[in-house]
Design a protein that fits this description.
Layout: H1 2-15, E1 28-31, E2 40-44, E3 51-54, E4 60-74, E5 89-91, E6 100-103, E7 109-116, E8 119-133, E9 154-155, E10 181-189, E11 203-206, E12 212-217, E13 233-243, E14 250-259
Parallel strand pairs: 4-9, 12-14
Antiparallel strand pairs: 1-2, 3-4, 4-8, 5-6, 7-8, 10-11, 10-13, 11-12, 13-14
């Protein structure tokens, strides 16, 4: 109980107890649930209009926000076209036990921005509901305050990411697929007699746990050193990303490589 009370105290201090009937007068946290220990889905800036969408527990206000949020989706829920499948769980962390931020819908605008083991880190633009911890605005029904739509996308809070050595960063989608991006990891030989005897590519990038997050297509590489000199070392690869033919894995078409 003491922990919850301390979280609430922090939440009230963060929001500054500072909502007017229409706009915020201080930076204010929007929580996923009416509980200050739940994930923060956005941090609204001072002066941002808010939209009340329904009743809330005492001490809270339920609001709707439209913006771009960070989330994680299991790699099996990424289609061959590198889109999030409809109905997939969008989680707040790369773990099956993480709280769910939302469920993917058909019209969601998503972009894959990284790889975290079995999960893809994404940005999603959509409308979400959350809670603001503020006694003076709590428990108001939706029709008691004029609904004011947020006109500017709200930036999502920073999501901690793994070190570059374990993350394939900035996987593009849509019309950005041909833009080269940076990927970091350990370059290893993909062929393994028992686990992977006939890989589609000779090399792959692995994270700190040794798990593959992408194959590496080396046909475009122009090297001054032998490629073998990069094997079993942490490297940075510049290239574009696409699916393998069977759609089960990602492959980075490498244009440059260097040891970190």
């Amino acid at each position: 109980m003491k922990t919850k009370l301390s979280f609430l105290a922090l939440a009230f201090a963060w929001s500054g107890l500072a909502l007017t009937a229409e706009t915020l007068t201080a930076d204010t946290a929007v929580f996923q649930q009416a509980d200050a220990s739940s994930p923060v889905i956005s941090q609204l800036k001072r002066g941002a209009p808010v939209e009340t969408v329904g009743d809330a527990p005492a001490g809270w206000r339920r609001v709707a926000i439209t913006g771009t949020f960070e989330a994680f989706v299991h790699s099996r829920d990424i289609s061959k076209s590198l889109e999030v499948r409809e109905g997939a769980s969008m989680l707040t962390a790369p773990s099956k036990t993480a709280p769910q931020l939302s469920v993917a819908q058909k019209d969601d605008v998503t972009e894959i921005t990284g790889l975290r083991g079995d999960y893809c880190q994404i940005k999603v633009t959509k409308r979400l509901e959350g809670f603001i911890a503020l006694p003076s605005m709590a428990n108001r029904p939706a029709d008691s305050t004029p609904a004011i739509a947020i006109t500017q996308p709200i930036a999502a809070p920073a999501v901690p990411v793994a070190t570059p050595a374990s993350v394939g960063r900035a996987v593009p989608t849509g019309n950005m697929a041909d833009l080269p991006r940076l990927f970091s990891g350990t370059l290893v030989v993909a062929r393994r007699p028992l686990l992977n005897p006939n890989p589609p590519y000779e090399y792959q990038l692995t994270d700190l746990s040794g798990r593959r997050f992408a194959y590496v297509d080396t046909k475009r590489l122009v090297l001054t050193n032998r490629l073998e000199s990069y094997v079993d070392k942490i490297v940075t690869v510049t290239g574009t990303v696409r699916n393998t033919v069977d759609g089960k894995d990602l492959v980075v078409v490498a244009e440059a490589i260097q040891v970190k």
